[in-house]
Amino acid sequence: MLQLYNTISRRQEPFTPLESKKVRFYHCGPTVYWTQHIGNLRGMTMADLLVRTLLYLGYEVVHVRNYTDVGHLTSDMDVGEDKMEKGAKREGKTPQEIADKYIRIFETDTAVLNLLAPKYKPRATDYITEMKDMIQALVDKGYAYVTDLAVYFDVSRFEGYNKLSRQKMEELDAGAGKGDVQDPAKRHPADFALWFFKAGVHKNALQTWPSPWGKEGFPGWHIECSAMSRKLLGRTLDIHMGGVEHIPVHHTNEIAQSEAASGERFVNYWLHNEHLLVNGRKMAKSEGTGYSLSEVGEKGFDPMDLRYFFLQAHYRSRQNFTWEALSAAAAARDNLMRKAFVLKSLVLPVGSKGAIIGKYNSEFEEAISDDLNIPQALAVAWQLLDGKHKPQDILTTLYDFDRVLGLRIRESLERQIPAEVMELVDRRERLRSEKRFAEADNVRQQIEEKGYLVEDKDKGSVVKPKEF
Ligand SMILES: [Zn+2]
């Protein structure tokens, strides 16, 4: 049975969705004001591994991953400039153009990393009505109050505000109070904005909407996820995921808003992934270490090398990125693919369909069910490749595992050996069996001209690309 580590209980728990085989899953998506670095893409890949694991185990997944295109300030705690405006100024474009541009880049990056597309990809600016309705409900119930600058959530009114982070309320006072001298009418330093008015530091805000609270303005970042998840998935979600940095503020605030508005539990399982470090330090654009996927490609790596690298660390562990470590991952993937090639070449002359090998299948399932132990699942794939079984069975089992690993194994093998090359290989085999060696050699040359090598083994010939 699938076990997941639930941040709110700090324990690994058996996973039971609300509806027997259907999983309502919300994942906090990117703020689309800049290219996402590979640290963010690791977080996205970890969510993909969760989705693939659920699908592998027979669940249906309703996956929502949002785009924040308004309201996320440069500090997560209501301070600073709207990131979309920052991006718009940087590039001399409108926030809308900036959102379109970076959504496009993000969708390309996630597609080449072989992340399954979510069922819903809501943009925050398309759900302003739902956000306003939820804020109004909070005002009506006495959980929110209006000042000259914003509508705030009153954290002192919500019991268990700190239940996810387990921070002490006094510490929150000290932490959240810092820098937030912008609104003296705020009651508690940890109170957070549900709606910012076009006033004060935001008097020149570029994206604003009319509001029922006197002035136009724009939503706070946290209410976006609460409103979109409720609209698309309902009041209670099975799983909500995001980076560990969201525990003390963003997710804490999402719980407060959603539960205060609905009176019901917001999320049953909270999952948080750890960060990708670079050379042991936080990734930072300012230090030139906020690498993008295209930079990884420019260094000669395949996106699947990066995906393989991500598979090597558990989502709750920090992973340290270095170019050497990525090279090692690329070499390991190359090795895995070469082994798979040999099997594929052996299977083709045989032509029979393989069967999934039970022993490895159960070990694989055990690994992924253990709070997504993907590094262990990858180890099982290696044991399978090195095991003594029929090539067609090994290959069939490997393809099955790749439904979770997502390394495009089958696709790469089929792409790497085009049908026309395989036809030549078959023709050469026939010629050799008829002892027409000169003609067979001629065909071998044709194969090599197409970029492939043929090696003769006792069970038949093996074809490999000259370069992987
Ligand atoms: Zn969120």
Number of domains: 3
Beta-strand residue percentage: 5-15%
Are there runs of 5+ residues with pLDDT below 50, and where?
174-180
The tally of beta strands, per DSSP, is 15
Distance between the termini: 38 Å
If you average the pLDDT, what whole number results? 92
> What is the radius of gyration computed over CA atoms, rounded to a whole number of angstroms?
26 Å
Could you tell me the CATH topology label of the largest domain. Rossmann fold
Fourth-tier CATH superfamily name of the largest domain: HUPs
Please identify, by name, the CATH architecture of the largest domain: 3-Layer(aba) Sandwich
The total of helices stands at: 16
Shape: elongated
The helix-and-strand class reads alpha/beta
Fraction of helical residues: 40-55%
Q: How can the largest sheet be summarized? A: 4 strands, parallel
Helix-strand blueprint:
Layout (H helix, E strand, L loop, with lengths): L2 E4 L4 E4 L7 E6 L10 H19 L3 E6 L17 H9 L3 H18 L15 H13 L3 E3 L3 E4 L15 H9 L14 E6 L19 E3 L1 H13 L3 E7 L3 H16 L4 E7 L2 E3 L2 E2 L10 H6 L4 H9 L7 E3 L1 H28 L7 H12 L4 H13 L4 H15 L3 H8 L2 H15 L3 H13 L2 E6 L2 E6 L3
Parallel strand pairs: 3-4, 3-9, 9-10, 11-13
Antiparallel strand pairs: 1-2, 5-6, 6-7, 7-8, 11-12, 14-15
Helix pairs in contact: 2-3, 4-6, 4-7, 6-7, 9-10, 10-13, 11-12, 12-13, 15-16
Zinc ion (ZN) binds next to helix 7.
Please describe what this structure looks like.
The chain contains 16 helices and 15 strands. It is elongated, with a radius of gyration of 26 Å. A hairpin with a 2-residue loop joins strand 14 (452-457) and strand 15. Residues 174-180 have low confidence and may be disordered. The protein has 3 domains: 19-273, 3-Layer(aba) Sandwich (Rossmann fold), CATH 3.40.50.620; 293-416, Cysteine-tRNA ligase, C-terminal anti-codon recognition domain (Four Helix Bundle (Hemerythrin (Met), subunit A), Up-down Bundle); 419-465. 46% of the residues lie in helices and 15% in strands. Helix 2 crosses helix 3, helix 4 (128-140) crosses helix 7 (247-262) and helix 12 packs antiparallel against helix 13 (391-405). With 468 residues, it is α/β, with parallel strands linked by helices. The strands form 5 sheets. A 4-stranded parallel β-sheet has the order 4-3-9-10, with helices on both faces. Strands 5-6-7-8 form a 4-stranded antiparallel β-sheet. The protein has a 3-stranded mixed β-sheet with strand order 12-11-13. The structure holds zinc ion.
